[in-house]
Write a structure and sequence with these properties.
alpha+beta; Catalase HpII,  Chain A, domain 1; Rossmann fold; 10-stranded antiparallel β-sheet; 6-stranded parallel β-sheet; disordered N terminus; binds CIS-heme D hydroxychlorin gamma-spirolactone 17R, 18S
Length: about 700
């Protein structure tokens, strides 16, 4: 039976190397070298053959007896667990939190009082609406969840990249999610709010208007997970040693600066790279460019809160920084990519109810509902009550109680005692005076399904948000509304949304109505309270909150046969010196021969590496290559999209031929490749002044 296989695999011989396995029929399966541990079943039984199932004769039926095959297939059949109903698509990383400023005046939580000490963290960033396999760059709110493994148990700060939310009461969450997810009869659109059911619901929910302003702004198009802010959204409480309470709001501020894409770019990124954000985070961490955020707090007393012109328990409101300034108290650094996506990022189970002693909840009705939901969802998602024992979820401090058994119990508790009070075992766990306590509030209102009158102002902060934006951001927001509503088939839903906008800002309503081709403005929607004019809140802007730097950015350089070697080298060096990562792009991934005869390998092939994935691009081409690529659609798109997405472009003479073919104009962002310093400067920011010449925004 030692015949050669048709594909040329050598026939078996008695001299089988240790790294090869032989099938019944004598075929030899060559393995890569190395010293491999023996393959076993999950029961530890060594497996002799991982290529062939057990069958009755070489061409006979497979036997039920084959426990190796059955175990392998059974495990495979169960490899998927139910994905998260929201925030299914996410990427995570390990790191640490370091407290720089103690809050001991306000809290007894060690994680917020022991300065200089590093607390291990795991952070997961996510989109909300799409499934686990959906793209990274739709217009969507991003989850920003951080698990702190504190010495007093896990603290989960489960926030978003937007400081407010769509609804005021947990009762509405399933409705909101059903409205935004793909429509149940047709199962589309995936990961998109631009459809009838979402806007039907929104247009009937005035309380969502402030959040809609944020959601339609460039905030929901983050350039990178590393350039997003994060917010705890709700007010929480800090409790000191004596149980005194101070309200707190948590903010994450990216050290990389706040940065978004523009809509056309985000749309094209969906085809350029499904995993754009995940890859960016992975690559940054892999090259040692560890993303970092400041943790800041807003602190205020109950009495101060009484004076606010809004109710801070209403999660559709921000506490403007002019009212309560931010205090930076620490930093988070993400410095380690998970070893295994499923074991860590997929199985991580966050819960806003996980807080250590010294942190407590407010009565925000949305938060109150969340305190129930997350534990409940993990029971079905992770299959039972012992998910806290999965390594990514297990506290790093000792934990013990009398809970026992259940699906997937991993621990082996010892002894007779699993109850309290008990006297038979000295080491059984007991409650401790240092344990978690709740603030002794005196809420004596009447029971009822009521909503506070102080929650009735749905439009003032929405107006404040819109009017605080820079002009290009306002235009993006209005255009986003036009885009989304243009996908809505039902005319009355479009009209009802515009009638809501009239309560926020009439010029906005008019711009959207014009963009939709509406002939007349509908009446304003009935409002429980008319909008008040509030002072602007500059902190809501994206423009001006970024950093003018190349550090941590990504630059693409297009080259081809005969490109000027010295110029390419100088540009690459200047850009890398400024802290950016360089990707060399060529029509062929094998690269090309440069002007000095040297061969340059490419990092990416032109057709699969469009300019969308870079912050700025340079084009260094010989005269012939410039002419040839002027006939190549991917090259023309490379140049024209960089121009259209307000990015800096450096070029030489050959590159200029391509720029002309791509109809690229001229402004401060278009620089000679012979001036690397000018390119570094231009590439450090977006060319906002270019925008009005490029597209008709609403
Ligand atoms: Fe969540 N949310 N949520 N949410 N949420 C979940 O928990 C829920 C809300 C947020 O990376 C689920 O484990 C209710 C606000 C993030 O694993 C679920 C309500 C904010 C993540 C759930 C809200 C969030 C979730 C789905 C209204 C920002 C992903 C799977 C009462 C402050 C965490 C899971 C991760 C995930 C319920 C509203 C943030 C179903 C009922 C407001 C970042 O339990």
């Amino acid at each position: 039976m030692a015949a050669s296989k048709p594909n040329g695999t050598p026939a078996a011989s008695d001299n089988v190397p240790a790294t090869a396995q032989r099938g019944e029929g004598g075929e030899l399966h060559q393995q890569a070298g190395g010293s491999h541990p023996p393959l076993t079943t999950n029961q530890g039984i060594p497996v002799s053959d991982n290529q062939n199932s057990l069958r009755q004769g070489p061409r006979g039926p497979t036997l039920l007896e084959d426990f190796v095959l059955r175990e392998k297939i059974t495990h495979f059949d169960h490899e998927r667990i139910p994905e998260r109903i929201v925030h299914a698509r996410g990427s995570g990383a390990h790191g640490y939190f370091e407290l720089t400023h103690s809050l001991e005046r306000y809290t007894r939580a060690k994680v917020l009082t022991e300065t200089g000490k590093r607390t291990e963290v795991f952070a997961r960033f996510s989109t909300v609406a799409g499934g686990a396999g959906s793209v990274d760059t739709p217009r969507d709110v991003r989850g920003f969840a951080v698990k702190f493994y504190t010495p007093e148990g896990n603290w989960d700060l489960v926030g978003n990249n937007i400081p407010v939310f769509f609804i005021q009461d947990a009762m509405k969450f399933p409705d909101l999610v059903h409205a935004v997810k793909m429509e149940p009869d047709r199962a589309f659109p995936q990961a998109a709010s631009a459809h009838d059911t979402f806007w039907d619901f929104i247009s009937l929910m005035p309380e969502s208007m402030h959040m809609i302003m944020w959601a339609m702004s460039d905030r929901t198009l983050p350039r990178s997970l590393r350039t997003m802010e994060g917010f705890g959204v709700h007010s929480f409480r800090l409790l000191d040693e004596d149980g005194n309470s101070t309200f707190v709001k948590f903010h994450w501020r990216p050290k990389q600066g706040l940065q978004s894409t523009i809509w056309d770019e985000a749309l094209k990124l969906q085809s350029a790279d499904n995993d754009f954000h995940r890859r960016d985070l992975f690559e940054a961490i892999s090259r040692g460019d560890f993303p970092e955020w400041e943790l800041a707090v807003q602190l205020f007393t109950e009495e101060e809160a009484e004076q606010f012109p809004f109710d801070h328990l209403d999660p559709t409101k921000i506490v403007p920084e002019s009212l309560v300034p931010l205090q930076v108290i620490g930093r988070m650094v993400l410095d380690r990519w998970p070893d295994n996506f499923f074991a860590e990022t997929e199985q991580v189970a966050f819960c806003p109810a996980n807080v250590p002693p010294g942190i407590d909840f407010s009565n925000d009705p949305l938060l109150q509902g969340r305190l129930f939901s997350y534990l409940d969802t993990q029971l079905s998602r992770l299959g039972g009550p012992n998910f806290h024992q999965i390594p990514i979820n297990a506290p790093r401090c000792p934990f013990a109680n009398n809970q026992r058994d259940g699906h997937m119990q991993m621990q082996v508790p010892k002894g007779r005692v699993a109850y309290e009070p008990s006297s038979l075992q000295d080491d059984s766990p007991r409650g401790t005076p240092r344990g978690f306590t709740s603030h002794a509030t005196a809420d004596d209102g009447r029971k009822g399904r009521t909503r506070a009158a102080s929650f009735a102002d749905h439009y003032s902060q929405a107006r404040m948000f819109f009017r605080s934006l820079e002009a290009p951001e306002q235009a993006h927001l209005a255009s986003a509304l036009v885009f989304e509503l243009s996908k809505v088939e039902t005319a009355k839903v479009r009209e009802r949304t515009v009638s809501q906008l009239r309560n926020i800002d009439d010029t906005l309503a008019q711009r959207v109505a014009d963009g939709l081709g509406m002939t007349a403005l509908p009446e304003p929607a009935p409002a429980a309270m008319p909008a008040q004019d509030l002072p602007p809140a500059p902190e809501v802007r994206v423009i001006g909150r970024g950093l003018e730097t190349l550090a941590g950015r990504s630059i693409g350089i297009l080259f081809d046969e005969g490109s000027d070697a010295a110029l390419l080298g100088a540009l690459k060096q200047a850009v890398q010196k400024a802290g950016a990562a360089v990707t060399l792009v060529a029509p062929k991934v094998g690269g090309a021969r440069l002007s000095d005869g040297s061969h340059q390998q490419a990092d990416g092939q032109l057709a699969g590496t469009p300019s969308e994935v870079f912050d700025a691009v340079a084009i260094v081409l010989s005269a012939e290559a410039g002419k040839a690529l002027a006939k190549e659609a991917a090259a023309i798109d490379f140049a024209s999209h960089a121009w259209a997405h307000l990015k800096a472009l450096a070029h030489d003479e050959g590159g200029k031929v391509l720029l002309q073919a791509a109809n690229v104009g001229n402004d401060e962002g278009i620089v000679e490749a012979t001036q690397p310093a000018a390119f570094v400067k231009a590439a450090s920011t977006r060319q906002w002044s270019r925008e009005p010449s490029l597209r008709l925004l609403a």
